[in-house]
Each structure stands twice: as C-alpha cells, then as structure tokens.
Amino acid sequence: MPELVFFSGTMDCGKSTLALQIEHNRSSRGLQGMIYSRNDRAGHGKLSSRLGLVTEAVEAADDMDFYAHVVGQLSSGGRVDYVIADEAQFLAPEQIDQLARVVDDLELDVFAFGISTDFRSKLFPGSQRLVELADRVEVLQVEALCWCGARATHNARTVGNRMVVEGAQVVVGDVVGDADGPPAEVGYEVLCRRHHRRRQTSASARAVALSPDVLPVDNAR
C-alpha cells in the first residue's frame, strides 16, 4: 500500500542525503519521481545535502497545490511513480493535506523530509500536520551531536554568535540588522536539551573555557 512517510530529525542528521538516496535508488530502477524542495541551501529549485550532492527539484511556492501539480503532470502525459518533498517543515498544513491526498487518491508513495521543531523548540506547522497525518514517522538514525558530545535534539538560532529564542520562525538569509547596530550574522546550531535550555552554544562554551576563574594578581611591591 502507498504511504505518506515523514522522515524527521534535527539539522545535520542527513535528511536531504536520505532523500537523494531514495531518489537514486528508485530512479536507477526505472521509476520517475516528482521532487519538491523549499528554501534549499543550494538555491531555488534544488535539493542538496551538506555532503555536496545536489539534484534538480520543483521549488514549492506558498500557493502551490501539490495534488493539482501532480495531477497536471499525469494529465499532460508525464510519469510520476513517487513524490519526494524536502524541507517539508516550511510547507503549510493544507499543503501537507494535499500530499496525503496524493497518497490516498493517486496511490503514490510520498516521502517527506524535515525538521520537527524550530529554534524555540516549537513545532513547525507543516511538521505538526505531518505527525498528525503520516502513515509512518521515522526518526533518522544518524545522530547529530551537540558540542558537548551528547545527542543533539534541539535546533538553535544564533545572531552574532549569541543564541536567540525570539523572532520569526523562518529566516532566509545570513544577516539581520536593526537601527541600533550593524548587521549581525544569523547561524544555526544543534544542541542537546540541557544546553538549549541554558542557551549555551559552542561559542559561548569556548568563551567560558577561555575565561580564567581567578584573575592573576601581582603581589610584588
């Protein structure tokens, strides 16, 4: 039976690599899939992994109807044997419903990949809907690690190397700024729950380690 499968994990756990592996395995057997992505690091209309692998994809716009798009491909003579949707956390809940309809009405497997929670430890709306609707939710077994060596379970956002827990849920780009200062670089890091709660990133941990507990005092007269 066709399934809607949600592959989830933190950043750096190999979601996009697995998506590319599934695409390779199926296409090498003569199957043809529709690949969708959103806000990929490699740019518009790409699905890429941090290992350097990349393939073409359809950029999933805010107003895209996935079910109508797949039906359009089939109606125009195209072949669709399965669907891959990467960065699915960025999709709207109604778009997840459309992917579920692709499974139920068109009887195609749909493989969705995404992180579950944002930098505030809150579920992305798209990920929440996938948890609600998916036939299976698979937590990826390639464990990302916190700077302390423990399993990373949370995604953290840094602005100017300082962890933040407020702001827009989705930030595309690498700098932000305000009227009070110069632009600051936006970064992301995976942390264990303990250090996410303490807002302690690798940079702040290094700063603490480099700071002497007791300042040297010269008692010479």
Automatic annotation (TrEMBL):
It catalyses: thymidine + ATP = dTMP + ADP + H(+). The lineage of its organism: Bacteria, Bacillati, Actinomycetota, Actinomycetes, Kitasatosporales. This is Thymidine kinase. Its EC number is 2.7.1.21. It is an enzyme of class 2 (transferase). Substrate binds at residues 170-173, 188. The keyword Kinase applies. GO terms for biological process: DNA biosynthetic process; thymidine metabolic process. Keywords: ATP-binding, DNA synthesis, Kinase, Nucleotide-binding, Transferase. It comes from the Bacteria. Belongs to the thymidine kinase family. The gene is tdk. One of its GO terms (molecular function) is ATP binding. The active site is at residue 87. One of its GO terms (cellular component) is cytosol.
